């Protein structure tokens, strides 16, 4: 039996380079050796977008197109929509008994998001509890591995705690899932912010056109202390060079640029123009693949229908085991 992967994304916007290096790349690589499930987490997206369901609805297709564009293959990976697997909601309710309120509110990612979103005194209970629901996402498929970005580590940790609690109370039922980070831990935004994020307005999207890409690269943050191209510049932590290291396959060119930058022998413009060429070469096949699927609504619906049906079967089997373990399988 192949080991299982479960991971997913909230459909709140298009996916960007940070998603690619953090998780998408791993998914494409691992779909041949794992039984992989990828979830479009609409229920989770609604926890802070309940007043804007149209946004969530529209982005389901965008996220699906991003998946297909990077090479997630529906023949190898099961792609599903979270709300269409009601077993996840059911399992969430059982898990809510196994965590304390205090523990959920201590989850560092949730804490950050609460601050960032400015909920103040009107924190929706559903939002605060979403890590518990995420534990249900992962375990209803009994996943071994969860490829995610660094910000999701607390979710996997909390899932592991819930699994241990469940297993010790009701008997061995679930495996403890492990997180898998991408080889780039965190991609900075084009504004120099440590993290690229949809809500931060500093992202390069996988679907950005050549023009959009060029504009974004040319206004990227570099070394703020460098005024003239003849000033010696700093390469370390400079986002333009961070991106060069990751996305420019021409290592000789990167080394040459770094050397000249440090010596004040190259302007920001040249460094950025070369980065644009590298990024554009990386994004072109992704863009093309996206275009191949765009507008093929029937095919897209079929992918989701088939994926969701397969996922439901697995989830249903898990719930039978859960109910037996919890002694609530009254009439068999
Ligand atoms: N919380 C994840 C994010 O914001 C999305 C997600 C939902 C997820 N369910 C999941 C990730 C299960 C991994 C496993 O990106």
Quick take:
This protein is 54% helix and 7% strand. It has 332 residues and is mainly α. It has two domains: 4-188 and 296-325, 3-Layer(aba) Sandwich (Rossmann fold); 210-290, Tyrosyl-Transfer RNA Synthetase (Orthogonal Bundle).
3D structure, described in words:
By secondary structure, the chain is mainly alpha-helical. It has two domains: 4-188 and 296-325, HUPs (Rossmann fold, 3-Layer(aba) Sandwich), CATH 3.40.50.620; 210-290, Tyrosyl-Transfer RNA Synthetase (Orthogonal Bundle). 54% of the residues lie in helices and 7% in strands. The strands form two sheets. The chain has a three-stranded parallel beta sheet with strand order 1-2-3. It has a two-stranded parallel ribbon with strand order 4-5. Helix 1 links the parallel strand 1 and strand 2 (35-40). The longest helix is centred in the C-terminal third of the chain and has 29 residues, at 297-325. The site of tryptophan has 15 residues, from strand 1 and helix 8.
Helix percentage: 40-55%
> What would the CATH topology of the largest domain be?
Rossmann fold
Note poorly predicted spans: none
Structural class: mainly alpha
Largest sheet: 3 strands, parallel
Tag the structure with descriptive keywords.
3-stranded parallel sheet; 2 domains; 7% strand; 54% helix; binds tryptophan; Tyrosyl-Transfer RNA Synthetase; 5 strands; mainly alpha; Rossmann fold; two-stranded parallel ribbon; 332 residues
């Amino acid at each position: 039996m192949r080991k299982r992967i479960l991971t997913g994304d909230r459909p709140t916007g298009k996916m960007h380079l940070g998603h690619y290096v953090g998780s998408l790349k791993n998914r494409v690589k691992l779909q041949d050796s794992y039984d992989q499930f990828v979830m479009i987490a609409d229920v989770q997206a609604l926890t802070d977008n309940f007043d804007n369901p149209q946004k969530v609805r529209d982005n389901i297709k965008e996220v699906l197109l991003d998946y297909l564009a990077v090479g997630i293959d529906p023949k190898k990976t099961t792609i599903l929509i979270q709300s269409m697997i009601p077993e996840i909601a059911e399992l969430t309710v059982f898990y809510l008994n196994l965590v304390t309120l205090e523990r959920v509110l201590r989850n560092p990612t949730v804490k950050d998001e609460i601050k960032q979103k400015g909920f103040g005194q009107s924190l929706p209970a559903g939002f605060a509890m979403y890590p518990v629901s995420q534990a249900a996402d992962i375990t209803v498929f009994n996943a071994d591995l969860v490829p995610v970005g660094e910000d999701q580590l607390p979710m996997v940790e909390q899932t592991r705690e819930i699994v241990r609690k469940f297993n010790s109370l009701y008997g061995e039922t679930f495996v403890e899932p492990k997180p898998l980070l991408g080889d780039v831990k965190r991609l900075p935004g084009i504004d120099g912010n440590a993290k690229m994020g949809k809500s931060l307005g500093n992202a390069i999207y996988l679907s950005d056109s050549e023009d959009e890409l060029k504009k974004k690269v040319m206004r990227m943050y570099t070394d703020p202390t460098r005024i003239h191209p003849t000033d010696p510049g700093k390469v370390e932590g400079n986002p333009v060079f961070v991106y060069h290291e990751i996305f420019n396959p021409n290592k000789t060119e990167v080394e040459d640029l770094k050397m000249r930058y440090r010596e004040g022998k190259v302007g920001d413009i040249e460094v950025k123009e070369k980065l644009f060429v590298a990024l554009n070469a990386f994004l072109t096949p992704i863009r093309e693949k996206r275009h191949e699927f765009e507008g093929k609504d029937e095919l897209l619906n079929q992918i989701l229908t088939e994926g969701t049906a397969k996922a439901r079967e697995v989830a249903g089997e898990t719930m039978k085991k859960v109910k037996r373990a919890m002694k609530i399988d009254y009439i068999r």
